[in-house]
Write a structure and sequence with these properties.
Elements (H helix, E strand, L loop, with lengths): L7 E5 L4 H14 L2 E5 L9 H7 L7 E5 L2 H7 L5 E4 L5 E2 L10 E4 L8 H6 L4 E3 L12 H15 L5
Parallel strand pairs: 1-2, 1-6, 2-3, 4-6, 4-7, 5-7
Helix pairs in contact: 1-2, 1-5
Length: 157
């Protein structure tokens, strides 16, 4: 990894422990900070969560927040990218920089509509060219977007 600041994955009200565990493993592999926004649909001590992350939890920088507005206040200069099936522009059009925050909503509902409406220029989607599914699994989506951001910033080749 380079000396660039780490990317940040933000999960807003995640509901499914194995998804969060898989994303924690992704974060450990890439040096990405994982932010969880409460309420969570599980306990951080959940056995399924830890099992999905295997023995990588010690390598994850984890922050837990009571609300998305807490993150915005803590990082007023932060650049936030909001991923949603409700957005129109492809994540491939995003101008990622090291240290950016990549935000995903809960598995069943995605991000709140008011968040997307307040940040339309920063709302992106992963195109589904076959049209056979509404969305990818949360952990798959996080991996797709994070690795593209890392590639674009020269942190992986």
């Amino acid at each position: 990894m380079s000396d660039a600041p780490p990317f940040n994955i933000v999960l807003v009200e995640p509901e499914i422990p194995p998804n969060t565990g898989n994303i924690a493993r992704l974060c450990a592999a890439t040096g990405t900070v994982l932010h969880l926004v409460e309420p969570l649909g599980f306990s951080i001590d959940d056995r399924q969560l830890k099992r999905a992350g295997l023995d990588y939890w010690a390598s994850v920088t984890l922050r837990v927040w009571q609300g998305l507005d807490q993150i915005w206040q803590a990082f007023p200069q932060g650049r936030f990218f909001y991923l949603s099936t409700k957005a129109c522009q492809s994540y491939l059009a995003a101008d990622f920089h090291a240290g950016d925050f990549i935000v995903f909503g809960k598995e069943t509902r995605g991000l709140p509509v008011d968040v997307l409406a307040a940040h339309p220029e920063s709302a992106f989607t992963i195109p589904m060219p076959a049209g056979a599914v509404r969305s990818l699994n949360l952990s798959t989506s996080a991996g797709v977007v994070l690795y593209e951001a890392l590639r674009r910033t020269g942190q992986i080749v």
